[in-house]
Amino acid sequence: MEKTFFMIKPDGVRRGLVGEVLHRIERRGFKIEKLEMRMATPELLEKHYEDLVDRPFFPQIVDFMTSGPLITGVLSGNQVIGSWRTMMGATNPKEALPGTIRGDYAQAPDEGGATFNVVHGSDSPESAEREISLWFGE
Ligand code: IDP
Ligand code: MG
Predict the structure, then answer these.
(1) Residue 98 pairs with which residues in a beta bridge?
(2) Which domain holds residue 69?
(3) Would you call 120 a catalytic residue per the annotation?
(4) Pairing, β 31-38 against β 119-121
(5) HSE toward the beta carbon, residue 114, CA cutoff 13 A
(6) Contacts of residue 72, Cβ cutoff 8 Å, sequence gap at least 6
(7) Which of 73, 74, 120, 132 is catalytic?
(8) CA angle 67, 20, 134 (to 5 degrees)
(9) Residue 51 CB burial class (10 angstroms; 0-12, 13-18, ≥19)
(10) How many distinct structural domains can be found in the chain?
(11) What positions does the domain Nucleoside diphosphate kinase-like occupy (predicted)?
(12) pLDDT, tens only, 19-70
């Protein structure tokens, strides 16, 4: 049984997609172990996105991710890390297939703009452990 860390980003919360996203998770049979609405801080985001802090678009990520409350949570289930990534769809919504959350609910970013792509999910067991401990302190 794996665990993963997920978020519904501020665009998803603002657009009223919390119920839709949670419904998809429950319909799939994954268990919601933890769920919390909160405001992200630049300090937390620098740790969360440690691989992206040197990218030119990092300031846009911080602006976007601190633009309103977001939902953070932990899911458990068989192969939930990879399955949740599949349910989210590709990072750039232009590439995300219909049927995925990003493919159904998001648009490609403006050139040089932030990618408003509704959801986050850990991309490996190592990231899952790191992100769960970062956001939930365990
Ligand atoms: P992921 O969210 O699919 O795991 P990552 O590469 O980890 O994708 O990037 C984290 C987040 O940073 C993305 O979801 C997106 O919001 C933002 N991002 C990634 N690449 C770009 C980019 O090229 N331009 C603008 N924002 C980006
Ligand atoms: Mg990522």
Answers:
(1) 100
(2) 2-136
(3) yes
(4) unpaired
(5) 16
(6) 5, 6, 7, 34, 35, 36, 37, 38, 135, 136
(7) 120
(8) 50
(9) exposed
(10) 1
(11) 1-138
(12) 999 999 999 999 999 999 999 999 999 999 999 999 999 999 999 999 999 9
